[in-house]
Write a structure and sequence with these properties.
One of its GO terms (biological process) is lipoprotein biosynthetic process. The chain is an alpha+beta fold. The chain has 2 helices and 2 strands; from the N terminus they run ββαα. It has a two-stranded antiparallel sheet. 0% of the residues are buried.
Length: 62
């Protein structure tokens, strides 16, 4: 795997790109399931953000 993707003057770090894509996919998945289960949109987004912060903190502390 390439550590960076260079598009002219723009340099993209691949680990950051993979993290961003994973977060986006997780948000889409959670949003669809929240709609199916009649969970209010605000509560679903709050849960997603709290989960993201807790996951990042756990990864840094672990």
């Amino acid at each position: 795997m390439f550590p960076v993707i260079q598009l002219g003057p723009l340099v993209i770090q691949t680990p950051g790109l993979v993290l961003l894509l994973g977060f986006w996919a997780g948000m889409e998945f959670a949003e669809r399931h929240a709609v199916q289960r009649n969970i209010p949109e605000g509560k679903a987004y709050n849960l997603i953000w709290v989960s993201l912060i807790a996951g990042l903190l756990g990864a840094r502390l672990g």
